[in-house]
Design goal:
It is built from 4 helices and 9 strands; from the N terminus they run ααααβββββββββ. A hairpin with a 7-residue loop joins strand 3 and strand 4. The longest helix has 21 residues. Helix content is 27%, strand content 25%. By secondary structure, it is an alpha+beta fold.
């Protein structure tokens, strides 16, 4: 590898890093007031546990198989852990075998999506449309009728039984 290739590669990686930093509308948009529910990090830390804050506000991912919501079987509604907006009906939940609660569809007007490049390849990130809280990702390997798998962090949600 010569110096020119090395520099070109470094510049490319820097450009990708900049794109990653500016591609997410979720939390950055929430901080700019683009969502209905807007709070400072200090305000979020007052109402969320440290683990919830990491997932909902800093886009962390909980460890697989650790969410109590993974085994939730009752009828009801899964809500945003940040603002309590109803997100998913229990009828859309399925066992994906991935270790995270999975759904084949969100409720109408409940979630928004952005393109996430954190792993360099594009993924569809899903967030609460009201507060911008990071929920997880959507993949194209789900069951009918949508063929989608909303792979959601249990820490990002609450559950209200019917």
């Amino acid at each position: 590898m010569n110096r020119r290739n090395f520099l070109a590669g470094g510049i490319s990686l820097a450009a990708i890093g900049a794109a990653v930093g500016f591609s997410r509308n979720g939390v950055n948009a929430a901080e700019s007031g683009a969502f209905e529910v807007v709070k400072t990090d200090a305000e979020w830390k007052e109402i969320l546990s440290p683990a919830q804050f990491a997932v909902l506000r800093k886009e962390a991912t909980e460890r697989a198989w650790t969410s109590p919501l993974l085994e939730e079987k009752r009828k009801g509604v899964y809500t945003c852990g940040g603002c309590e907006l109803p997100l998913y009906a229990s009828e859309t939940k399925f066992d994906s075998g991935t270790g995270w609660p999975s759904f084949f569809a969100a409720l109408d007007n409940a979630v928004g999506t952005t393109t996430d490049y954190k792993l360099l390849l594009p993924r569809t990130e899903v967030h609460c449309r009201r507060c911008g809280g990071h929920l997880g990702h959507i993949f194209n390997d789900g069951p009918p009728p949508t063929g989608k798998r909303h792979c959601i962090n249990g820490l990002a949600m609450g559950f209200v039984a019917a």
